[in-house]
Amino acid sequence: MGRKATIEKAKEQATNVMRFRRMSVKTRKSYLYWLENYSWWLFSHPKGSTEEKLTAFLTYLAKERNVSASTQKQALNALVFYYKRVRQQDIADISTFSRATKPKKLPVVLSTREVYGLLSHMNSTAWLVASIIYGAGLRLTEALSLRVHDIDFDRMQINVKAGKREKDRSVMLPGSIVAALQQQLEEVKRIHTQDLAKGHGDTHLPYALAKKYPNAPREWGWQFIFPSTKYCPHPDTGVWARWHLHESAIQKKVKQAAQLADIKKNIGPHTLRHSFATHLLESGTDIRTLQELLGHKHLSTTQIYTHVSTIGATGTVSPLEAINNSNNTRFHAKTEQIATVQPIGIHEQAHK
Known about the structure:
CATH topology of the largest domain: hpI Integrase, Chain A
Mean pLDDT: 85
Helix content: 40-55%
Oligomer: single chain
């Protein structure tokens, strides 16, 4: 068997296991990418035990390819999954590999004024998706994956099904978007009715539900709230049906709105989720409740927002403010001198 055929067989075996374990399409693509990379690398590094090969490959990623810590961790997870779950092979200690540098980055957060400015430069579907992300703290994929039956108008809740790590949760439904959401559902209903009249009307269902419930793909409750404009094949079955909007469609709209709103920060749809968490924390929401709303497995993941909120360390009043608010006349005299000098330079520059 040739090298390429060997790699394809390994990928097929991994795909079958990942489908059985109901792993998301995005995770499967990522794992298969690293499995293929590792397999090609093995052909030129065939010596050593499995542990030695894994250690060498992960070190190679850090030292020669200069990947980030998150990328190296992704590769590690993919390969450990392959050996343990696909090949049923135990792996000894591989912790001696050189670890990629992990930069300490804080999430980018918008102020409430910036959020208002961003949303005011968006309209239609993109505005509604962005409003749900900020208003309920959803991930972009979670917002786009919402189906008609996930909205509970009576209880004012959004039921997030099979979120990250297959974890369901319920979050608040902001009252300010109810009217727009109902209008969106009416439009989806119109499209679905037209599809049914043409003999279509199917949507993609998760896992094997389409086989268990043959009529479900055409039922109103299973339709995506933000359907794609065209039919597309399912990555597993190849069956053509309506999927939800692609992530890139919303990402582009957010970037465009940020430019129009003159927001200098490097942001995307996920920034709205960061802003949701930070603003709730600042308004007094306890960290445990916030963890549940965000669907975080570990509290430590949620605690990062304490570093960017205006309460706690970053909310502490600067000693400069205390001096500036005192009756120190020498300090005020100095600041007045600076204030009288700087505008002249700016004025002169403007006329050059």
